[in-house]
Design goal:
GO terms for molecular function: 3'-nucleotidase activity; 5'-nucleotidase activity; exopolyphosphatase activity; metal ion binding; nucleotide binding. The protein has 261 residues and is α/β, with parallel strands linked by helices. The chain is built from 6 helices and 11 strands. The longest helix is centred in the middle third of the chain and has 17 residues. The N and C termini lie far apart (50 Å).
Length: 261
Amino acid sequence: MRILITNDDGINAPGLQVLERIAAEVAGPQGEVWTVAPAFEQSGVGHKISYTHPMMVIEMAARRYAAEGSPADCVLAGLYDVLDGARPDLVLSGVNRGNNAAENTLYSGTIGGAMEAALQGVPAIALSQYYGPANRDLADPFEAAAATGAEVVGRILDWNEWGGGDYGVFYSVNFPPCPAAEVKGTRVTVQGMRRDTYFSTEPHMSPSGRRFVWIKGGPQAVETAPDSDNQANLDGYVSVTPMRCDLTAHDLLDTLREKME
């Protein structure tokens, strides 16, 4: 099996090292793992592509490249430049430092990398490690992902459902904020919503007197619907959420047609 991996935390991120080990186990001794990751952190860029300017791609080691772009850029560079058309069997994106559950999904560069792979017709899985009081101070905060990641990816591959039609399915996997020994299992979930929790801004003045604003996140450990990704993670489970790139609100189409046509 040939696997292409990327992330949004950058080529030197510890979560990428975890993903390299997961990918190597999934690919097997005869497989290939290729890394194309951002040269610098690209958190929060979503599905951004560098459409208006070129990016530099540097070979760091055998099958390991850094690209001056977003995770979606890295997938494109991997598919059409680094691998030179030799398409991978699977794209893995992550392991993100922090959760990409609930509304975080919409901002995530980790999700954006998997989304681009899906649009290119390549099976893809995004993986993210929830941080919380029970794991953030561990010697390895990613130990839940490291211990269970290959098994979860393998089970998704065994399921082997990537959807039909114009927009294929990709998967978002979030590992719970707890030590590996406390992971309770796996739950298939919907994307949740943390109510009354939003991104916001916080102003700061620079030493030169110029005003800047930082983007600031809201509380993460907010309970959501029982069948949602975020709640499963807070309850100690790995969440697996099937997703599509189709943004159409299908539930409103018939009613809207009645009103508009």
